Amino acid sequence: MNLQSFDSLASGFASTERMPVLFVGHGNPMNAILENETTANWRKMAEGIQPKAILCISAHWQTRGTLVTMAPKPQTIHDFGGFPKELFEVQYPAPGAPEAAHLLIQQVKTHTVEEDHEWGLDHGTWSVLIKMFPKADVPVFQLSLDHHMSPAAHYALGEELKALRHKGILIVGSGNSIHNLRQARWNSDQPYDWALAFDSRIKSMIENQDHQSLIHYANLGTEALLSIPTNEHYLPMLYTLALRNPQDQLTFFNETIEMSAIGMRSFVLA
Q1: 155-193: per-residue pLDDT in tens?
Q2: Cβ distance 53 to 138 under 8 Å?
Q3: How many CB atoms lie within 10 A of CB 221?
Q4: In terms of Cα–Cα distance, which of 231, 250, 264 is closest to 127?
Q5: Reduced to 3 DSSP states, what percent helix, strand and coil does the chain have, rounded to the nearest 5?
Q6: CA-to-CA distance for 261 and 242, rounded, in angstroms?
Q7: Number of Cα atoms under 13 Å in the Cβ half of residue 213
Q8: Considering just the CA atoms, what is the radius of gyration of the chain in Å?
Q9: What does the H/E/C string look like for 225-268?
Q10: 0.85 cut: is pTM over it?
């Protein structure tokens, strides 16, 4: 991209009032077609937000290297199995945001972000946005999770995205702060004691802006290791925390634990 074309691109995302940033516990893909307290809160949190584009960092796009989607018409990816036909029929036909994706690449100075023209919108993205922005009229793009990077490196990359908040881009981390499918009890919402304890610690550390402890979660003991057996659902939360501005107010929502071992804790920084 030459300088003239980049200047033209940047003018389309001129500095504007700071966008909020969200972390959303997305949980069960069925939330895309259900109406419940969780989905009602997703809808409520999006009220009044009018972004130029949405960047989603989803637990469900892990790659070698860091990629950003460029597709002008991203496909709706049904990356799951064993669910009703109705869920597989859901489409979220939001346009892509290649201009915003190019802007992201320009913002990141210490890390190589490569273009991806194949990936669409996985369920970590569309199952949430279909409730928040049901008209699918806001351009959406995704940033992948490089599974070779440390949590600290993911957090540092998130810090480099702060300027996008002033360009009309809503950034959404989508995962789960606690995610242990092996321990999940599909017909029970009675949380394990370790899940309750770790959820309480997470809340306290977020409130106290103890980001270093959250980054180095492996040092937090057995409760943390049970809550985060693999970290792909946890990492999007670190991106959201890295984007925190000193003026931001913290609001928690969906503070439940589903299936005994899936933490739905979500928050907005605005």
Answers
A1: 999 999 999 999 999 999 999 999 999 999 988 879 999
A2: yes
A3: 13
A4: 264
A5: 35, 20, 45
A6: 25
A7: 14
A8: 18
A9: HHHCCCCCCCHHHHHHHHCCCCCCCEEEECCCEECCCEECCEEE
A10: yes
